[in-house]
Write a structure and sequence with these properties.
mainly alpha; single chain; Serine Threonine Protein Phosphatase 5, Tetratricopeptide repeat; two-stranded antiparallel ribbon
Length: 617
């Protein structure tokens, strides 16, 4: 399997790395390394220094495998079975945001788990965002503090080392503040200082992070395989940090800071900050332009290989062309077990504590003609709801009557086809689908216990992929320059309007351009951006949780009511139709103003007065 190839690290450097694992944000930031080792040995030459930097990649958790059957979607996307009330999604539905630290009783959170600490091993089950982000920040600051000791290196090698350190320092700050809001921006090693830095506003932290992202973009290579520094690991550089990655996160950082929630807490204004949106648009444009000209390797994966964005069956890493940033492929429970058990019912080999797409969320998927289902001209037929839908609907969602099992002597039609109607053996509030759907986005259907194919599956969705950059560019241009027809004033050979950017992603799936009626106003087009993001980026990297919060709409009842679809069936598989179809509310998510931010651990806000808890917690 080709992946990011780790440079061999001297034994003493390994000791230096592993011996600063602590238990709170202060401890990660202010403790001196305990290993006795010459700084010259660690930082004096490129090979050793790059080995030190490599560990930062192992500070990125695989959000799909925080535990054996990990769930990570905590907004309006999913319904858990009644027997799985310990799942993280249930805790967040109930307003229990303290559960980010441990899950809802069974360590179900990749966001944080005190038992894990800041482990940088090769086990996905031992990693969590909170601890590793603080650890990564301190590691970056140690590297930057010792950067002047890098003597045995070319100028390009020095640029690459510094660029990676600056990127990761900004990235880990961005990860923390996206969940928790403003924090201190730590830009030095605090080994000899007491941690007393006050929390900054979200905008202040974002502007500091922007400086690091921007400088990183100037220093990092366009393509490691085409740069002298990448020749020693040629063909194994696909997950490394490049100029495009830094530009994309520079734009994302600016866009988040410009968004209504972040702008409100920073300035008191709940509109978009148009100037920050323009800065975001510039960064996104530069990233996209590099792909347009072929200078950068990132491209949208072709439709007939679209699943490779999420999983592969050929022992290759997913998302080779489209992923800008993903976690390394850590070892843990087999991917086929962890994810199949999460998304599929016991009749197919799942463990009975599954989650399924909520009907309220599935309604975001429009029609093949590109219109949303509630558009009077869409052609949506409530008596035939799964016909003529957006092609992405069929890639991501299993609905009643879909063939799930290919063969096997024990497979009759009662198992071979998805029986998701009321009374069907795929459908059960306690152990099966609670909503009337199954999620297939991250799993080949033949991984079931009858076909038992694809057991070498690798499931590794991205933190950020190029499709998201197109959408964020569209949003930034819309709110920075004012209309769907606006564009960033870039190079004359690449004029990209906000509408063009959305259409570029839709075109990959064969979905027509956004209809003219949704290009008539900023508000109308923004509603299509919201819906498009819900479709294309569904169930990935907590994007939905971030979006609803930053848009300041998570408290709206539209995004709090989770529903299922009940129906009977006529016909026999695969030629079935639903009858007596009705939408049923299952629960209303608890959401108060305090839920726009996660609470900090009590032990950390008690460290010193200037590190305050988020309001309401």
């Amino acid at each position: 399997m080709k992946t990011l190839k780790h440079t061999k690290i001297p034994i003493k450097a390994i000791l230096f790395i592993v011996l600063f694992t602590f238990t709170s944000c202060e401890e990660y930031l202010d403790k001196a390394p305990e290993a006795e080792i010459s700084e010259k040995e660690v930082f004096g030459n490129f090979r050793s220094f790059q080995g030190f930097v490599e560990e930062l990649h192992h500070c990125i958790p695989d959000y799909t495998k925080g535990t054996w059957v990990d769930d990570w979607n905590i907004a309006d996307e999913l319904l858990a079975t009644t027997g799985a009330n310990w799942r993280l999604t249930v805790a967040f539905d109930n307003g229990d945001y303290w559960a980010w630290q441990h899950g809802n009783g069974w360590s179900q959170s990749y966001i944080g788990n005190p038992a894990d600490g800041a482990n940088t091993d090769n086990n996905a089950h031992t990693k969590n965002l909170w601890d590793l982000a603080w650890y990564g920040i301190r590691k970056c600051n140690i590297g930057l503090k010792n950067f002047d000791k890098l003597i045995d290196a070319t100028e390009e090698e020095k640029r690459v080392i510094k660029g990676q350190l600056l990127f990761f320092r900004a990235f880990f700050h961005f990860q923390i503040m996206s969940f928790w809001g403003g924090i201190p921006y730590i830009d030095k090693d605090l080994a000899s200082e007491k941690m007393e830095l006050p929390r900054l506003s979200y905008r202040e932290v974002a502007l500091r992070a922007a400086q690091d992202f921007e400088e990183a973009a100037e220093l990092l290579p366009l393509d490691w395989d085409k740069s002298p520094v990448g020749q020693r690991t040629l063909g194994n550089n696909q997950q490394r940090i490049t100029k495009s990655v830094a530009l994309a996160y520079l734009g994302k950082n600016y866009l988040y800071a410009a968004s209504p929630l972040m702008n409100l807490v920073s300035t008191g204004n709940s509109d978009y900050d148009s100037e920050l949106c323009k800065k975001a648009a510039e960064a996104f444009y530069k990233c996209l332009y590099l792909s347009y000209t072929g200078q950068a390797p990132y491209q949208l994966i072709e439709w007939d290989r679209y699943e490779e964005n999420f999983y592969t069956l050929n022992d290759k890493l997913p998302g080779v062309r489209e992923h800008l940033l993903a976690a390394p492929n850590y070892g843990a429970a087999p991917d086929w077990y962890s994810n199949f058990s999460l998304f599929f019912p016991p009749v197919l080999g799942g463990d009975g504590n599954m989650i399924s797409p909520a009907h309220n969320y599935v309604k975001n998927f429009g029609m093949a003609n590109g219109l949303p289902i509630d558009d009077p001209e869409s052609g949506y037929d409530e008596t035939d709801p799964w016909s003529n839908r957006d092609p992405r609907f069929y890639k991501f969602i299993v609905y009643d009557g879909v063939q799930v099992v290919k063969g096997g002597t024990s497979a009759n039609d009662n198992v071979r086809y998805a029986n998701l109607y009321n009374g069907g053996n795929y459908r059960d509030d306690g152990t099966g689908s609670r909503s009337g759907y199954l999620l297939r986005k991250f799993m080949n259907l033949t991984n079931n216990n009858i076909d038992a194919e694809g057991r070498n599956i690798i499931v590794l969705p991205a933190y950020l992929r190029l499709a998201d950059v197109y959408y964020m560019y569209a949003e930034a241009v819309l709110h920075g320059y004012g209309t769907p027809q606006s564009s960033y004033p870039g190079n004359p050979d690449y004029v990209l309007t906000a509408a063009d950017a959305v259409n570029a992603v839709r075109a990959r799936a064969g979905v027509p351009n956004v209809d003219a009626k949704y290009l008539s106003s900023k508000d109308a087009f923004m509603q299509e951006i919201i819906r498009e993001r819900a479709v294309e980026l569904c169930y990935e990297a907590n994007i939905r949780f971030m979006d609803l919060r930053r848009w300041l709409i998570a408290e709206d009842m539209k995004y709090r009511i989770k529903t299922a679809i009940d129906f009977d069936r006529t016909g026999t598989p695969p030629n079935t139709k639903p009858i007596n179809l009705r939408e049923r509310p299952v629960m209303v998510r608890v959401f108060e103003k305090k839920h726009y931010w996660l609470p900090f651990p009590t032990k950390d806000v008690n460290l010193y007065p200037a590190f305050t808890q988020n309001p309401g917690w």
